[in-house]
Design the sequence.
């Protein structure tokens, strides 16, 4: 299985560089265009491959977009309810990893502890994709940055302001800033900071500006992107009431939007709590690109799957793409 190149996982962005991320975006554009233009496509680059999906937390977008994406690429996705598998309770993670590697071609996993997905990847001989952990959500942020890229909004100085909790989604934005240059501002309460290791690593990329601030209105000044996520993440339900109070001022609303650049867009990874971290007015308003980013989960994850499961096809696309660019330049 998957012998054509060294097995690679997608747990975060650390093994990628800026060029590789742009390559993924260009391939995502191709995948998206191709899906729209050819309804009955025979493009099946992961034909016959099977993917085991382990969900230890609830999901709508991630589960549906992976399942559809794998189907459209010619593969088969099996959804394994985390409770029935019992990762590290019914069975040790290393045994699950080795066992699924005998049956499947890849594993998509949504788990609590990030160390457990690292162990899954370490013991599996097939690619493991992070579908969210308590630490990070790289599939989400890849789709979000791609959404800005395809709209022509991405540039080195784009100011992305994340308003709310220094959570897994914020951490992945920070991790991305360690690779792709841009201006990232996290406006969070003082006791809801992001992961310090990820932050310190990301800050080594001198081309990005990464700020952690505590005044959301000031942070929103001149923002190109206002981004938010729930105040209470999955697994933190017991803190929900307290968090309502702590995050009261960290809401994206029309007042905050007026502080941002007039052309600013509003993003949210969803699920959203209307009236808490974002008002319904802004969520449904003309500057919201929330459903575009949700749709792009599908296209970007398909690109990641092809990269991990059929690297020859992925390389072939980029070689052709480069040759077309050279030909275009020669002809102009
Ligand atoms: N944004 C996101 O990952 O949504 P789900 O939790 O519904 O998968
Ligand atoms: N921070 C949220 C993201 C959901 C997609 C959570 O972990 O619940």
Sequence:
């Amino acid at each position: 299985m998957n012998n054509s190149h060294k097995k690679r996982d997608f747990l975060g962005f650390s093994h990628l560089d800026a060029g590789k991320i742009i390559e993924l975006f260009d391939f995502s554009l191709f995948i998206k265009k191709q899906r729209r233009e050819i309804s009955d496509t025979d493009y099946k680059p992961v034909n016959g491959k099977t993917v085991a999906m382990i969900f230890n937390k609830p999901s709508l977008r991630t589960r549906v977009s992976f399942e559809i994406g794998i189907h459209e690429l010619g593969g088969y996705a099996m959804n394994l309810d985390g409770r029935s598998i019992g990762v590290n309770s019914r069975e040790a993670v290393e045994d699950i990893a080795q066992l699924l590697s005998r049956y499947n071609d890849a594993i998509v996993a949504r788990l609590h502890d990030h160390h457990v997905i690292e162990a899954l990847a370490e013991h599996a001989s097939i690619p493991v994709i992070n579908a969210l952990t308590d630490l990070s959500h790289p599939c989400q942020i890849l789709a979000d940055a791609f959404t800005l890229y395809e709209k022509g909004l991405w540039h080195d100085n784009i100011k992305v302001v994340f308003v709310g909790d220094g959570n897994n989604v914020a951490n992945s934005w920070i991790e991305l800033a360690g690779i792709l240059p841009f201006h990232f501002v996290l406006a969070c309460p003082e006791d809801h900071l992001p992961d310090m290791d990820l932050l310190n690593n990301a800050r080594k990329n001198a081309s990005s500006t990464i700020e952690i601030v505590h005044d959301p209105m000031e942070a929103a000044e001149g923002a190109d992107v206002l981004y938010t996520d729930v105040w209470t993440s999955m697994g933190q339900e017991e803190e929900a009431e307290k968090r309502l109070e702590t995050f009261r001022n960290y809401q994206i609303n029309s007042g905050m939007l007026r502080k941002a650049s007039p052309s600013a867009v509003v993003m949210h990874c969803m699920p959203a709590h209307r009236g808490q971290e974002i008002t319904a007015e802004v969520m449904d308003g003309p500057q919201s690109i929330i459903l575009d980013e949700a749709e792009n989960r599908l296209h970007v994850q398909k690109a990641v799957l092809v990269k991990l499961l059929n690297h020859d096809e992925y390389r072939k696309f980029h070689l052709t793409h480069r040759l077309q660019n050279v030909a275009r330049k020669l002809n102009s």
User: Anything to note?
Assistant: Residues 57 and 110 are 6 Å apart (CA to CA). Strands lie at 50-55, 76-81, 106-110, 128-130, 159-163, 183-187, 209-213, 225-228, 265-268. The chain has a mean pLDDT of 95.
